[in-house]
Q: What sequence folds into this?
């Protein structure tokens, strides 16, 4: 990571993405989908046992934050491509309603950690600071961006940018034009699409108490609840105490954590469709 990607103190950020979305859609007409936080089974168990999603120190912004994506489970593990036989290293997803949460600390139209780590450097303009891409720190700004850039939540979930959108943006709007290039890295037409590149990131400066009814759905390996040697009644009771639904996937040892990402994505897509019906 490098400070060269952050704007210097006293330099105003360029809010092109906010301006373009507001000009096209001054009012927000879509309902907010769930937010999703993906972590490892090991940390997920702690979160459910305690009932709290705690903020942690963020190396990018130097502040304790808790992170979510809007609808899309796009998070990737640092060593997600390495095989493991330890259940605790595999994905655990928490979907929750944003309705009763406070205002987010920030909203960005991509994964800021991936941006700062150079995952988008093949198309990112080095003369544009990460701060220039920031949306307004509220849920409405995220929803307006979805409408402007994708047309709706379903299209956003599938990372399908509006056809011809680039042609409607003046070429001198370099922030918006470069965001479109970054967002294209999430396209399913690529050999290795990186869905973080257009996933909307919300960070909160407060821990989230799941005991207050925020939780909507948990997704984790079925072997966390039961295997031939017994049932994890303690963990099951913790889930029941939070009054939250859950779905499981069939874990296998000596697979990679990344290999289960598509299963979690399909579960969330079915849920999105069910909520819209």
A:
């Amino acid at each position: 990571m490098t400070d060269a990607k952050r704007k210097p103190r006293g330099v105003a950020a360029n809010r092109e993405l906010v301006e373009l979305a507001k000009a096209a859609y001054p009012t927000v007409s879509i309902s907010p989908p769930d937010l999703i936080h993906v972590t490892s089974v090991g940390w997920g168990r702690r979160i459910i046992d305690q009932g709290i999603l705690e903020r942690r120190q963020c190396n990018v912004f130097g502040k304790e934050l808790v992170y979510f994506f809007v609808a899309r489970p796009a998070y990737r593990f640092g060593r997600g491509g390495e095989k493991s036989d330890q259940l605790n290293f595999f994905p655990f997803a928490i979907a929750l309603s944003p309705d009763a949460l406070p205002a987010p600390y920030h909203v960005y139209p991509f994964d800021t950690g991936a941006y700062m780590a150079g995952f988008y450097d093949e198309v990112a303009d080095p003369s544009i600071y990460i701060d220039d891409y920031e949306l307004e720190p509220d849920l409405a700004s995220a929803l307006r961006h979805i409408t402007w850039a994708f047309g709706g939540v379903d299209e956003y979930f599938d990372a399908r940018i509006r056809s011809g959108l680039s042609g409607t943006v003046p070429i001198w709007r370099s922030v918006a034009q470069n965001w479109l290039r970054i967002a294209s890295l999430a396209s399913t037409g690529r050999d290795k699409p990186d869905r973080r590149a257009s996933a909307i990131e919300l960070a909160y400066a407060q821990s989230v108490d799941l005991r207050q009814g925020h939780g909507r759905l948990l997704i984790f390996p079925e072997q966390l609840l039961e295997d031939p040697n017994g049932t994890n009644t303690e963990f099951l009771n913790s889930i029941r105490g939070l009054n939250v639904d859950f779905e499981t996937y069939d874990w296998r040892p000596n697979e990679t954590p990344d290999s289960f990402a598509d299963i979690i994505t399909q579960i969330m897509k079915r849920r999105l469709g069910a909520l819209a019906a």
